[in-house]
């Protein structure tokens, strides 16, 4: 397995890559919509970044970059300014997700009455009485609605203790002319810019000289039909193309999320003992190599420090990147534009989905990532995804993604 992730500003790290050395660039850059208040999502990528991408890409090489519906034009214009030729736009459709919208009727109701909806505290949830469907009654007399599961949607992370928690919100009865009016549609697609580095001469000559410049139609056919520029839930096609949002197993690939204290002791090579260090199972003390005898209530802190010193991800953390793409989708896109045994680049590496797919397909992978925490997560996921499972479990069985 051959891959590396360059930590730092990609406008600088890309300068360490040689001219005309990359066969394909598959990336999920920022969308420029200030997603969840993340500073890195303030634009769709700097012009300097894409200029460096053009330089390192082989003539005829493709760049595939995700974007959002309302900011795609910024990305496309920036790519053209950097010197790329826009060849097409691939549309990825999906059924999950949520609208980042304001409820005008609720806002007006709140302004006029001061009454607002709010999330029900966990201690009140057992008191709720179900009326029908997702509607409940609170003992204080007001209606409560169970909210849709937010897993994978980028909404507030409710992950804890290895399980996703149900959330409930007080229902505010809105009776004004603007009831039911909101400020945005539910997103159901993401456009992918298909750009190519210009070249001199014919495509055939470019393919012969550089090995890139064409699309691998046979590898991405829908049975015996040509692949199209639409991927997703399309009647008659979805069983071949549809890539759901990332499963929990795939998102947290390489991380142990539900580590109890017994497992912590086992991982560190220690044993349970009494206050004098004699082995036993009274659960009060633990002996850990290089640490010695400790009280059990301090075990989690010692384990976290041990993980840090041994370059291991701690339990109950996992992959917290908010915009994880399915590996199956990245694998399809790589196969579309990348010859075998090539070098794939992702200048906005994030949590490493492109790298997971590229290494799985036998390519060399280079990623660039500004955040050191995401670099660690990406390395963990790429390594775990491409390490054979000792039980012989296949990717399909383990990650449910193919």
Could you characterize what this model shows?
The chain is an alpha/beta fold and 402 residues long. The protein has three domains: 3-95 and 188-253 and 320-399, Rossmann fold (3-Layer(aba) Sandwich), CATH 3.40.50; 117-170, no CATH class; 261-309, no CATH class. 27% of the residues lie in helices and 20% in strands. The protein has helices at 10-13, 47-56, 72-82, 104-113, 203-210, 238-241, 248-251, 261-268, 299-309, 327-337, 353-360, 372-385, 395-399, and strands spanning 3-7, 22-27, 57-66, 85-93, 129-132, 135-137, 143-146, 159-160, 163-164, 168-170, 189-196, 230-231, 271-273, 285-288, 292-295, 343-346, 364-369. The strands form four sheets. Strands 1-17-16-2-3-11-4-12 form an eight-stranded mixed β-sheet, with helices on both faces. Strands 5-6-7-10 form a four-stranded antiparallel β-sheet, with no helix packed on it. Strand 8 and strand 9 form a beta hairpin. The longest helix has 14 residues, at 372-385. The chain is flat and about 75 Å long. The two termini are 21 Å apart.
């Amino acid at each position: 397995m051959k891959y590396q992730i360059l930590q730092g500003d990609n406008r600088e790290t890309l300068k360490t890559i040689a001219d005309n050395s990359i066969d394909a660039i598959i990336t999920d850059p920022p969308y420029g919509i200030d997603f969840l208040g993340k500073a890195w999502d303030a634009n769709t990528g700097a012009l300097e970044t894409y200029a460096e991408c053009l330089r390192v890409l082989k003539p005829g090489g493709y760049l595939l970059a995700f974007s959002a519906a309302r900011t795609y034009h910024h990305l496309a214009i920036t790519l053209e300014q950097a010197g790329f030729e826009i060849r097409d736009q691939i549309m990825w459709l999906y059924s999950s997700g949520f609208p980042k919208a304001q409820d005008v009727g609720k806002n007006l109701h709140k302004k006029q009455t001061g009454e607002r909806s709010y999330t029900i505290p966990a201690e009140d949830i057992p008191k709720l009485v179900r009326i029908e469907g997702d509607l409940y009654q609170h003992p204080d007399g007001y209606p409560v609605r169970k909210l849709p599961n937010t897993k994978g949607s980028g909404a507030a992370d409710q992950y804890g203790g290895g399980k996703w928690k149900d959330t409930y919100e007080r229902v505010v009865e809105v009776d004004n002319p603007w009831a039911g009016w909101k400020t945005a549609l539910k997103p159901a697609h993401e456009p992918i810019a298909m750009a190519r580095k210009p070249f001199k001469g014919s495509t055939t000559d470019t393919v012969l000289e550089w090995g890139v410049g064409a699309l691998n139609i046979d590898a991405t056919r829908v049975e015996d039909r040509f692949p199209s520029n639409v991927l997703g839930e399309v009647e008659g096609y979805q069983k071949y193309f549809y890539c759901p949002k990332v499963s929990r197993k795939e998102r947290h690939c390489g991380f142990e999320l539900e580590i109890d204290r017994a497992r912590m002791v086992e991982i560190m090579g220690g044993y349970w003992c009494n206050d004098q260090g004699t082995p036993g199972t009274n659960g009060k003390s633990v002996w850990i190599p290089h640490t010695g005898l400790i009280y059990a209530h301090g075990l989690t802190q010692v384990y976290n420090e041990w993980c840090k010193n041994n370059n291991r991800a701690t339990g109950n953390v996992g992959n917290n990147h908010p915009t994880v793409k399915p590996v199956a989708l990245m694998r399809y896109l790589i196969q579309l534009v990348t010859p075998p045994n090539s070098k794939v680049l992702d200048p906005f590496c994030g949590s490493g989905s492109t790298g997971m797919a590229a290494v799985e397909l036998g390519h060399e992978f280079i990623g660039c990532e500004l955040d050191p925490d995401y670099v660690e997560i990406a390395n963990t996921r790429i390594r775990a995804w491409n390490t054979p499972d000792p039980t012989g479990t296949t990717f399909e069985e383990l990650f449910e993604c193919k």
